[in-house]
């Protein structure tokens, strides 16, 4: 099961090698998340409509290793955009993947860019 | 830099590290911790939860990297075998030497094995570490296929009873063998012991008292325990829990002074007879006593840290052994001197065998002081009694009021938490006083529960003091003239009721608008579902309208399960279902390979549906005549019924018919928390209506209406609101009651705690609902009727609209389903693969 986790590493915007096209902006819910697939990875994509920001992170919950984060509720904590896992409501920063409840779990985050109403996620492979 | 070596990485050894790293002088010390067990320190107090599913990782007090992050060298699986106090060094079992400037012995204790012949035979265990528990579990699982299922526990103390419960949970027929004439002889008096015993026996655990074991026999594994009275007990395994012995052997062998009956002798600075060597926790012998509780152990850790870092703190002379815990589901508490009774002291007892409650308080003859007591079955008064005892506070005129409470009138003999002196210890685990908490509030440093926990660590141990801290916070803020913050979250500085009114008056249509008008930021997982609930309560808006503000279950109109699949619950009003409809459910379950189980609310739950399957499943259920059961929502769940007068020879009224009528009326109604109802056809109460938010019981001349009951973690019986009502009046009162609750309750508050907080309690509620004292009865009824008229099945709505259907797809960019999902077979059905521990 640990193999699952080892597939996900945060990607810094300047290190992106490939931008993968994952769909039209209209296919993603406003102020919520949806999931996309790239190779064997599942990536959750979030559309923060109020300030037109997009975020992406692993769909895998780091606590119980289930593919659910895209179905979590989004929001912010003191300005930091976040997602709450639907299983146990642990919350994670979508900026750096850190856990906002002060626990050890961490998630991988990925850069997102929007060009001509198309959503792209950045990967290093 | 000075080197501190800590021997032992149990709860107290860990606490020492935790306290040390917060000291400003922290940088002057290099800390090395030796632990004999392979795992870092874990929560031994909650060891039994390891059996009920908690993982070893979840029990850890801090993850492994906490030590490295805090610059502490943790060496697990390394035992210290010798101490050389002369040359200030310790030797490990691998013969490596480590020098120290300060040595802290937190070696804890081991299980005491009485000198009984045969105690080495396979199948005999102790109950102390997660490794012991693993061994017990493995052994029990090997017994079962051989048809052996008997377990015995030697020792009827606290830990013994925990062990017995664990054995029972493993499916073993369990007996407890106690040498004394009663259970927990050190903490409980005879009636208390008997009460506890009968509660435990009710759970199927057999108790033998007055039994001295003289021999354990068996060929390849244990078969029998022989007692001194000539009787015996056959058993296939035995867990010995006959007390603890301090781990003082290394200290003793190294010339450090130990007590005759064990324990490393320490003074009130936690210093042993050797220079710069300290002992803390269960290994330490202080004032001729060994203290097997966490709170004194933590105090010792703090004293040792203070002494080493140049502080002056010492250990109090008297160590309080008061304790409150849940033992096999029963509250057990004792404080002060639980037994004292003489010419100066009177004991006041309250015993209620029907409810399984026993309370005793020991009061001075003049009725002025509380000296100790025992609580069994209901320890909700423990915090207050303990504070009165420990602070020597004055008792009320009739001391018996302290244990006799008058719930219905909402009066308490205890007084307010503000009456406590500033020195009163509110959190004994972290030793935080009332003064500390109040000062942190009055200085402006803390203004929320979260702040207080962060600053003082109060309530992070057993958590029992949480309600008192909340009261302190609220009362202190109030006395400072500050409004008590009942804000929803950082995005809305309003209470639920304020927002409810604001949204209603300003005709706000959606979450974004509410955020623009009254809030800030993006919202969060607290305010979003709450506003969704308000929009639903005001306009009967279904979860399909503002999908992403719904709680994650409402968003997909199903209940998420352990592996990310969902369960599906169609509505079965009143629990009445035709064979044809049963077959529809059976057919759907079979087609989609769903695990099927009857729920507690008289319906059928279908588990294991993947996200993309939900609409297909619902299309078939709706064609078969079903509607959403709203099992996923904070909304009306079910109205449970007994079969009533149409079949039952005792039935007074037609309970099923009336339950269906009510469930049909309130279905889809969203509320601050879930709502459950029940209708019973006679006072035998087979529908358990008094355990529901609203319950009707048929009597001569109509229905008795009970409100504000619930099951769950804090079970409550509903309270009588009105008697002998006809159907019409009953529904009228229900409309008013439910709507009033929906308007005024705080978020996620069920009806029982809502009533507790309602000024004037049930009498006030009666005035509002029956006498219409607020003049809003008609409005409440009208609001409810509007909601009833607007009801729509949200699943039907969803499957008829392609836009709404979009959300039931696992991937945006692929038609694949989630390949991470795995099931394993279970009793002819299936379940999700267990989580990795």
TrEMBL record, chain A:
UniProt keyword Transcription present: no
Residue ranges annotated for the Rieske domain, each copy included: 20-121
Keyword vocabulary terms for this entry: 2Fe-2S, Heme, Iron, Iron-sulfur, Metal-binding, Nitrate assimilation, Oxidoreductase
Highest taxon of source: Bacteria
GO molecular function: 2 iron, 2 sulfur cluster binding; metal ion binding; nitrite reductase [NAD(P)H] activity
Protein name: Rieske domain-containing protein
Gene3D superfamilies for the chain: Rieske [2Fe-2S] iron-sulphur domain (2.102.10.10)
GO BP field: nitrate assimilation
Entry keyword Heme: yes
NCBIfam families: nirD_assim_sml (TIGR02378)
Cross-referenced InterPro entries: NasD-like, Rieske-like_NirD, Rieske_2Fe-2S, Rieske_2Fe-2S_sf
UniProtKB/TrEMBL annotation, chain B:
Pathway entry: Nitrogen metabolism; nitrate reduction (assimilation)
Domain BFD-like [2Fe-2S]-binding: 426-475
UniProt GO molecular function: 2 iron, 2 sulfur cluster binding; 4 iron, 4 sulfur cluster binding; flavin adenine dinucleotide binding; heme binding; metal ion binding; NADP binding; nitrite reductase activity
Superkingdom as given in the UniProt entry: Bacteria
Domain FAD/NAD(P)-binding positions: 3-306
One BP annotation, GO: nitrate assimilation
Residues covered by the NADH-rubredoxin oxidoreductase C-terminal domain: 322-385
Note accompanying the cofactor annotation: Binds 1 siroheme per subunit.
InterPro entries named among the record's database cross-references: BFD-like_2Fe2S-bd_dom, BFD-like_2Fe2S-bd_dom_sf, FAD/NAD-bd_sf, FAD/NAD-binding_dom, FAD/NAD-linked_Rdtase_dimer_sf, NasD-like, NiRdtase/SiRdtase_haem-b_fer, Nit/Sulf_reduc_fer-like_dom_sf
Matches recorded under SUPFAM superfamilies: FAD/NAD(P)-binding domain (SSF51905), Nitrite and sulphite reductase 4Fe-4S domain-like (SSF56014), Nitrite/Sulfite reductase N-terminal domain-like (SSF55124)
Record: residues binding [4Fe-4S] cluster: 642, 648, 682, 686
Pfam families: Fer2_BFD (PF04324), NIR_SIR (PF01077), NIR_SIR_ferr (PF03460), Pyr_redox_2 (PF07992), Rubredoxin_C (PF18267)
Residues the record lists as binding siroheme: 686
Nitrite/sulphite reductase 4Fe-4S domain boundaries: 633-772
Cross-referenced Gene3D superfamilies: 3.30.390.30, BFD-like [2Fe-2S]-binding domain, FAD/NAD(P)-binding domain, Sulfite Reductase Hemoprotein, domain 1
Domain Nitrite/Sulfite reductase ferredoxin-like stretches: 561-623
Entry keywords, A to Z: 2Fe-2S, 4Fe-4S, FAD, Flavoprotein, Heme, Iron, Iron-sulfur, Metal-binding, Nitrate assimilation, Oxidoreductase
Family: Belongs to the nitrite and sulfite reductase 4Fe-4S domain family.
PANTHER family: NITRITE REDUCTASE (NADH) LARGE SUBUNIT
Listed name of the protein: Nitrite reductase (NADH) large subunit
The organism of origin for this protein: Salinimicrobium marinum
